[in-house]
Amino acid sequence: MSSGRKEIQRARMWRYFLDAATEVIEKEGINHVTIRKIAEKAGYTSSTAYNYFRDLSHLKFFAAMRFTKGYTDELPVYLEKGKNTVEKWLYSWECFCRHSFEQPKIYSVIFMDNLGSVPEELLDDYYKIYRDDLIGLPEQIKLIIMEHSFSKRSALYIENAVDEGLIEKKDIDFIADTTLMIWKGMMNTVMNQRRKYTTEEAIKRTLYYVYESVIRVVNPDKREEIEFLPGRKIED
């Protein structure tokens, strides 16, 4: 079989298994996804599934990716709300928080679980099969989505704020890493029910902490240019 035909066969089999996984997630939740259950629903054996997915974590990762299309579809709309790079970046955080806290188990699988391999490679494989998910997105947003590492994604986008005189280059990694830790901390708190936050409370608190972390390193002379209302206050 030629390499081209093998790739077509691989894409076809992926779709069979991921269609089955998607159905299980929609009906039972991602915690109920098993290789055996997915293989049986797709009409194949577990051993066949392992020919295309290394283990259950990989199958769950790819299946979960299907549930992020709402986020990628809305991201350009949120970015348009900002007048400068810092505002756009903060609005992108609002978009991400709204989708991730509404589907915490899905986003935890993608961004927090141990996958046992390089996430960037998995994400690249996903978009080779599902190219349509990227159609229509601006090139800059494609880069953000394809860069799996959260801190790298943040740094990649917010770099333009240096040219705008809003922040200094030395602060980029601090902002990217700090805001990632804020989101992960709140996501862990929500999933483990350490505090009884509603989804909206979790979103608001995360955006407040993200905003406060960022505004501290923004050029004092330009802070008034950052108008991001969702992160301005928090209810105790």
From TrEMBL:
Superkingdom assignment: Bacteria
Keyword terms: DNA-binding
Residues annotated as domain HTH tetR-type: 11-71
Protein known as: HTH tetR-type domain-containing protein
The keyword DNA-binding is assigned to this record: yes
Biological source species: Lentibacillus populi
PROSITE patterns: HTH_TETR_2
Residue stretches in coiled coil: none
Matching Pfam families: TetR_N
DNA-binding region ranges: 34-53
Gene3D superfamilies on file: Tetracycline Repressor, domain 2 (1.10.357.10)
Residues of the signal peptide: none
An MF annotation (GO) of this entry: DNA binding
